[in-house]
Amino acid sequence: MKKEGKTDVSRPYKLAHQTLCIRAINLEKKSLIGYVELVIHPLRQDLKRVKINSKQCRIYHVSINDQYEAKFLYNDPTLEICQGDAKQRNLDYFQHCHFSAMSAVDPDNGNGEITVRLPPEMYLNIAELRPFRLCIEFSLENPKGGLHFVVPDLPGPAHENAAHVFTAGLNNCSRLWFPCLDTYSEPCTWKIEVTVDNELTAVTCGDLIEVISTPDKKRKTFHYFLSIPTSAPNIGMAVGPFEIHVDPNMHEVTHFCLPHLTEILKHTTNYIHQAFEFYEELLSSRYPYTCYKHVFVDEAYVESTSYATMSVLSTNLLHSNRIIDQTISTRTVLAEAVAKQFFGTFIAMQTWSDAWLPMGISGYLCGLFIKKTFGNNEYRFRISNYLKDVQDYENRVGGIVLDPTKRDSNHHFSIKSPHTVSPRYMEAFRSKCFLVMRMLEQRIGEQLLIQVVNKLVALATTGASQKVGANTWGNLLLSTSSFLKIISTVTGKDISPFLELWVSQSGCARFFGNFVFNRKRNVVELELKQDLGAKGALKYVGPLTVTIQELDGSFNHNFKIEENKTKFDITCHSKCRRNKKKKIPLMTGEEVDMDLSAMDADSPVLWLRVDPDMNLLSHVTWEQPDYMWQYQLRYERDIVAQREAIRALENYPTAGTRRALTDILEDDHCFYRIRMEAAHCLAKVANSMVGVWAGPPAMMTIFRKMFGSHSCPAIIRQNNFSNFQNYFLLKTIPNAMALLRNIHTICPPEVFKFIMELFKYNDNSRNKFSDNYYRAALVEAVSKTVTPAITLMSTPGQGPTADNLSAETKQILEEITRYLNLEKLLPCYRHTVTVSCLSAIRTLQKFGHLPSEVEFFKSYAQHGVFRDIRLAAIDAIVDFIKTESRPEDMYWILNLVETDPDLYVRHYALQQLVLNPPFRRMETSALHTEGLVERLWKMMNCTFSYDSRLRCDAADVYFTLYGRTRPSCLPIPDNMVVLSLKDRKNKMNPAYVPDEMEEMFDDEEEDEEVGMEEGESSQVDTEADIDVTDIGGEEPSLKRKSPPPTELPPPLVLSIGSVPETCPLGIFNEDSASQSKRLKLKMESETLEEPQVTEPSKASGTQEVTVTKTPVTPSSATSAYAAEFLKFVGVKQEHPAPEPQLSVTMDTSSRLSEGSSSPTTTAMGSESSAPLSFAGLLPSSTSATDMSSATDSKAHKAKKKKKKNKHKHKHKHKHDRPDKDPLGRIREGSFNSSENSPSVTQTTLSSPEFEI
Question: Please, which pLDDT band fits residue 921 given cuts at 50, 70 and 90?
């Protein structure tokens, strides 16, 4: 919803339509081939360049209107953030370089990785502002981000093993799998064609127009068309052997799942039509698209990712009708995915600074659906959780700024780009978006906010039906300024101060308060202070509501906060009490009988609350007597007030607190989540009162009264989970009792015996619901009874053995072993029992009851095991690293982070290193070495260049371990130079495209002819000819070696007419720009198998190569693209697959359906030898990476000198000497840095290898 008449001056053209054609997909080789066609409307008559986003795609050919070939330049500084830097290792420097690199390719700044020079033949059409078509042919091989292939390592065809592929990523990740304008601010219509094998189904955005099969019935093409303008980041795709289920209640909705999961798919999605009906009725508008598709996939990047007309969701969300716990979370995720179709894909953010609007509105709409479906208590409980999450993050880490255009933050990362923010920051960011939108609802009213949202949808619907123009589709984009204007139009209110306080600033208000009742004046003297010194604190100035519950009712008082310390006098409406019992009217209008004997006889105040409706992002520390908290817990009907009272009563271990908590635990009318929290609070109070506690252990009598059999209360009844409140209490009370401790700080024997009897008498034979979560809770409870072991060691270093284990520990081990063995035979839903068993085993290890053995957990963390089990094993391994500090275990977890096929597992492992780090900055540890610093720095600098989430995760780990300054374990370099981070011309980070690179496209034809003549004059007899503009026309006998992913970067394409997979900034100088059609390249004769590090002057075995003219149109029969496509269609497996290390049964339904078979894992040679020292975390000192630092300074000086004299000697002596050839810089870079510039070898470059 941009302002009318406003044109995006940073991009001098408008995208009207885009065609995405995927010609073939190879699941076995994890590759695809296709082309895109962009219809571009020039907005300026002097348009000469078009910038496109594309990463990790191999570009074959670029043409205009299928008539003219276009030259292009590839520049991606994000491949290596700190280029050429051998000294800097502080996060402030990395943050600056990271944001600069992202800005250099940000389409909202008019930038991109690919710069296409329009041919002179198009200048006349552009002067007349005629639209033109830009066609780009590309392929993608083994992507590291953006597109995720799930190919089980099993015998047989891929489709029979449920192999599939889907888009995976967060904001602005479409560039990772097809060339596009990867920005939300450039919507257009789409035509998408996907050709797949006949056994597969392709699901993508838009309406399915037709499916056309080839004559041999081996392949088929799905044709989709999306008539509503949509931005490229909202385009997604999924291809696999999906089973299809059309929603019986709403035929526009179609669900897709992997084989054998249709039954649980039907149950999981049987309510989705209710979400559509709710949103349509609430917004007074129909669903904006004509169809909607749910695609459930394995190894999902996140639980839910929304695209136009479709959502890609995790298979782990599916559940049968026997599962209780998963239902609420799954329905919440699916409902939010539908809400994002309205705000997120149909109406998208204009820029990153406006992202809080669609996130906040979609979260707000989802919250209203939760309120209607699960009740107001569940809704307010979620609000309370979100508020606590935001408070905790801002207090521990730092402030959250929703609109970063006006203010920056003090984080170790930049908040001005979605690719640079921390994943933890993004989680808190989404929560704050929802809270701010709800605060806005409280400020202007629910009905008026709904009218504003209705207006946004109505304007967008009208704009989507118009034809392309400079501003016709602006209503599909939502910005802060347009939102402010619409609110002013609909409501007549100015919310600028509100947005300035909560959107443009960071922090939460932090209040400390207490009060005293003045009997003589009959007033409450209230004092409030603001803590402005804490991290994440915000100075609040504005209205504040205080609620006082008196004998005669509940009364609200509004005050104006202007100072840091404020005092108020509140006149009471009630007099002092006269009777011990009285009916007290509550805020809800209900009157209840209260026993007033505990309260102060001189005060009519029962309790007092600050900001009861959570109208502010605030943290309130409130002081009042314990009896007031007890009254508030018993009689206040707001669950947020009850949570506040429970947290406060932890500090008041008295008999009155015990009775209040017990009453809540037994009250069937109380919200079940409050009763669960009361159980844990009662356990803490009981531990504090252990010296004066009388009677049986806390909660044992309550549990037997609720769940014990009538004839023998000590024996639990058969399971019956039809009462969901009792079911959750059944799981919670044993866990709370397990935390009880006697005066010897060990679990009381009667409590331990009680929990073990629950194992013994558990009977689920007549229960219609699964008891897997209950059994997992019992394992968790028994692990909480464990306390540190006290054993006598006969010899030094002797660990615990089976003979010296206590009787209780032996019983625990027997139950865990029994459950683990039972899980292998009869696995439960999502293997919840196995997860709890792994956690329990780690607890026994930590407390000295079992030997600390990490190999056990490594076997469960291997790829092929169910994801939840792997995550539990990673938790244990990270905790093991913290306690043992063994370098080989840290080495193992970092290898998993770098190489594991499941991207979420890699993300989770890094997150655990942040939450449970092996050490923190300024701490002493055996892991605090230079090798670990270099390993982490390499991860965030270049290893994770195609996954911004992993890159930012690595930066979080680095910050947690070392802070923002240079790690103390690194030696101080002798020639350390302080660099100005504000200097945009900093040569240590060439994130900005040099002017000489842009001027390359302005060279005249006579320059090319001169370069050709000079190039021909320098030929030698030993030179061979190679086509540097046609990368696909290779000799049949030549193949490109596939370098190991951890050693060498992808091959380099040395042509202006083609783009490399990873091409460092600055390899094309002006000399190379004026090269002729016949270029002479010095090339290494060795292959990439054993890269040798030598000086450029010592290179031997050089050959020269020749070029031929590339074809003009993509349909040419002689084009490299056509040849590769013909090869692609006839793919066959030539080399046998490597022997798998794990034997895995990949029946996906076994993970989800109760009582079915489980994915079992058997280790087969999976153990790898760990390095003896932590120095093994880095490659050998003789590697190309290490030796590159030795020649870094020399290469930098040579380049600087060359640039200085480039205008004097533009074409003079270009080919006189071998070291002065046009591509000398490329050859030099290939020897100096294996990370930035790949080595040039005799092997010709080609597209992905496909066998005929």
Answer: confident
What is the domain range of residue 135? 1-76+113-241
Question: Do 1031 and 1053 fall within a single domain?
Answer: yes
What's the whole-number mean pLDDT along residues 1052-1072? 38
Residue 568 has pLDDT above 60, yes or no: yes
Cβ contact 736:681 at 8 Å: no
Q: pLDDT by residue (tens digit) across 608-630?
A: 999 999 999 999 999 999 999 99
1066 pLDDT higher than 70: no
**406 and 497 co-located in one domain:** yes
Partners of residue 621 on adjacent β-strands: 512
CATH number, position 33: 2.60.40.1730
Residue with structure tokens 């209705």?
454
CA nearest to 369, candidates 337, 413, 416, 322: 337
Examine the domain organization and report whether 515 and 498 are in the same domain.
no
Cα-to-chain-centroid distance, residue 183: 18
| Average pLDDT over all residues of the chain | 80
Grouping H, G, I as helix, E, B as strand and the rest as coil, residue 1144 is: strand
Are 111 and 103 in contact by the 8 Å Cβ rule? The answer is yes
Domain boundary among 502, 520, 552: 502
Q: Which residue reads 């602005």 in tokens? A: 172
- Supply the DSSP string of 662-730, one letter for each residue: HHHHH-TTS-HHHHHHHHHHHHHHHHHTTTT--SSPTTHHHHHHHHB-SS-TTSBPPP-TTSHHHHHHH
In a domain, 46, yes or no: yes
> Comparing C-alpha atoms, which of 263, 270, 280 is closest to residue 247?
270
The residues near 366 (Cβ < 8 Å, ≥ 6 apart) are: 332, 335, 336, 339
Q: Are 633 and 660 in contact (CB under 8 A)?
A: yes
Predicted pLDDT of residue 689: 92
- Give dist(CA 1070, CA 1086) in Å, integer: 29
Span 547-565, pLDDT tens digits? 999 888 889 999 899 888 8
Query: Please, what is the Cα angle at 1241 between 1235 and 63, to 5 degrees?
Result: 85
Q: Note the pTM of the prediction, 2 decimals.
A: 0.80
> For position 600, which CATH number holds?
2.60.40
User: Is the domain of 474 the same as that of 601?
Assistant: no
Report the domain count for the chain: 4
User: What share of the chain has pLDDT > 70, as a percent?
Assistant: 75
CATH of the domain at 375: 1.10.390.10
Give me the count of residues in the chain.
1252
Q: Are residues 521 and 473 in the same domain?
A: no
pLDDT at 350: 93
Is 638:694 a contact under the CB 8 Å cutoff? no
Tokens 């009285």 sit on residue: 582
Alpha carbons within 13 A on the beta-carbon side of 972: 5
Among 78, 242, 241, smallest CA distance to 173 is for 78
Model confidence at 1238: pLDDT above 90: no
Model confidence at 391, pLDDT cuts 50, 70, 90, reads: very high
The verdict on residue 944 lying in a domain is: no
Same domain, 438 and 559: no
The pLDDT confidence band at residue 1032, using thresholds 50, 70 and 90, is very low
Classify residue 729: in a domain, yes or no: no
CA distance 711 to 821: 33
Do 518 and 386 share a domain, yes or no? no
Q: Of the candidates 595, 616, 637, which is a domain's last residue?
A: 616
Q: Give the model confidence (pLDDT) of 162-175 as tens digits.
A: 999 999 988 889 99
Based on the fold, state whether residues 493 and 538 are members of the same structural domain. Answer: no
- The edge-to-edge listing of strands for the beta sheet with 618-622 is 565-571, 523-530, 509-518, 618-622
- Taking alpha carbons only, the member of 934, 865, 859 closest to residue 894 is 934
Decide if 1227 is inside a domain: yes
d(CA 1074, CA 53): 25
User: What is the model's pLDDT at position 1114?
Assistant: 38
Residues facing 729 on adjacent strands: none
Would you say residue 1195 has pLDDT above 80?
no
